Amino acid sequence: MDKLIAWLDAKLLPIANKMGNQRHMTAIRKGIIGTLPLTIVGSFFTILNNIPIPSVAAAMAPYKEVLDIPFRFTVGMLALYAVFGIAFSLAQSYKMDGLTSGLLATMAFLVSTAAPIHVLKGVKNVIEPGRYLNIANLGASSLFASIVTAIVTVEIFRFLKEKNITIKMPAGVPPEVSNSFVALFPAAAVLIVFWVIRHILNFNIATFLSTVLMPLKGILVGNSLPGGLLTIFLICAFWTMGIHGAAIMDPLIRPFWEVSIATNMAEFTAGTSAHHLSTIFTEQFLQWFVWIGGAGGTLALVVLFMFSKSKYLKELGKLAFLPGLFNINEPIMFGAPVVMNPILAIPFIIAPLITATIAYIGTVSGLIPMMMARLPFTVPGPIGAWISTNWSVWALLLGILNFIIDLAIYYPFFKAFERQQLDKEAADLAALAEKES
User: Fold this and answer.
1) What is the pLDDT of residues 64-76, one digit of tens each?
2) CB of 390 closer than 8 Å to CB of 57
3) Are 350 and 409 in contact (CB under 8 A)?
4) How many CB atoms lie within 10 A of CB 61?
5) Which of 12, 80, 268, 305 is deepest in the core (most CB within 10 A)?
């Protein structure tokens, strides 16, 4: 274990830190995380529209289309919101005007992704003549296009600004007015670049990126057990070195996670059974079946600490229980600590790999539905699994089973660590008694 930690520290840690702090990666992470409230709210409406009680479902049937609207304008337009957030964050990192950059990137994304449909002759009581945007082009399937569009837009803006290809206003002009004129040439340049690419050269950025990147999604996120276990291993390995594993992996994997859960939600809303959705290894799969109590499944360790013979571990367990119940595990990670602790690091890595494998088998066998909603990460694991799989009782039971498995895996390592802690406490008491005598 010491050799493994040393190798990770020497080889992977520098790369991970560099990736995590890279300007564009940070902007992508901030921009996508900024959409989190929208996707969570959209998930609640998905759940509300699919309550598995026949009488309730029948009563709500006349309102199904109306209840679907919040989903369409949150998750259904995820990429549109993300492009603004990413451009805003990247511009701020360059000390540029974030609002203008976000608006330019939004314009570029719409021009390159959502070509208007021109209806010359309407259909009575259905649609009037005019131009329409298909909001399906603004959803999760275009998320990678939104990332590229945001970055390219801000870099064009920055290049023109650094070369002084802008309109400068006299001193005394209000900043909001001055910023608008500064952005005139960049706005024209961005508009022309993306208009030419999409409508003159007929090159669809979203389609191209989806084709190129989807194989990588299949490895890290999709339905591959080795790929899912690799993601879990890397997140846990970074955590054992004191680095927030999910934060380090976020720039690489967050876009795939967002696409996966949004696609699952859209398919479910369209009528696909939760057993036949696109992706197994969504972030929610990890949250509710694997990260019970937080990364590493540490709620089990918290419970073991609560019944420890060690005074310190017992008090720590009591203090960490409430946060752990809601999947916040920093108190136990840095209080025990699990970080840089060869004894506890082993089950911290092994337990999630085993529980993920069990949950995967349950899913591919058809017993457990796939994730069709996105809830706040603070929902207790089994309850989150129950709701997010369209109220599957089997998912609830699997969450409980995985918690019991976590307890069994952590137990022998906990006992070894407890003996170590008891020896330390005994030594401290002896030293104190000797000092007082």
Assistant:
1) 888 888 888 987 8
2) no
3) yes
4) 10
5) 305
> Which residues fall within 8 angstroms of residue 359, CB to CB, at 6 or more apart?
285, 289, 290, 368, 398, 402
Distance of CA 211 to the CA centre of its chain: 22
Residues 6+ apart with CB under 8 A from 55: none
Write the CA distances from 319 to 100, 303, 304, 324, 406, integer angstroms: 46, 11, 13, 9, 20
Number of other CB atoms surrounding residue 391 within 10 Å: 16
CB within 8 Å of 105: residues ≥ 6 apart: 83, 84, 86, 87, 149, 150, 153, 154, 190
Q: Where are the alpha helices (DSSP H) in 336-388?
A: 342-364, 381-388
DSSP state of 196: I
Tokens of 111: 């021009």
326 closest CA partner among 291, 296, 293, 295: 293
- Each residue of 321-341: pLDDT tens digit? 988 888 888 788 878 888 778
pTM over 0.70: no
Burial 187-225 (b: 16+ CB within 10 A, else e): bebbeebbeebbeeeeebbbeebbeeeeeebeebbbebe
Do the strands 117-119 and 130-132 form a parallel or antiparallel pair, or are they unpaired?
antiparallel
For 43, counting Cβ atoms within 10 Å of its Cβ (0-12 exposed, 13-18 middle, 19+ buried), the class is buried
Residue 265 corresponds to which amino acid?
A: M
Which tokens go with 393? 């009782």
Q: Which CA distances in Å does 423 have to 333, 337, 416, 429?
A: 21, 17, 11, 10
Q: What is the C-alpha to C-alpha distance for residues 159 and 239, in angstroms, rounded to an integer?
A: 38
| Cβ-based neighbours of 169, under 8 Å, separated by 6 or more | 177, 178, 181, 182
Query: How confident is the model at residue 106, as a pLDDT?
Result: 96
DSSP state, residue 117 = E
Q: What is the DSSP letter of 243?
A: S
Distances (CA, A) of 22 to 101, 118, 349, 392: 19, 42, 27, 41
Sorted by sequence, the CB contacts under 8 Å of residue 106 that are 6+ apart come out as 80, 83, 84, 87
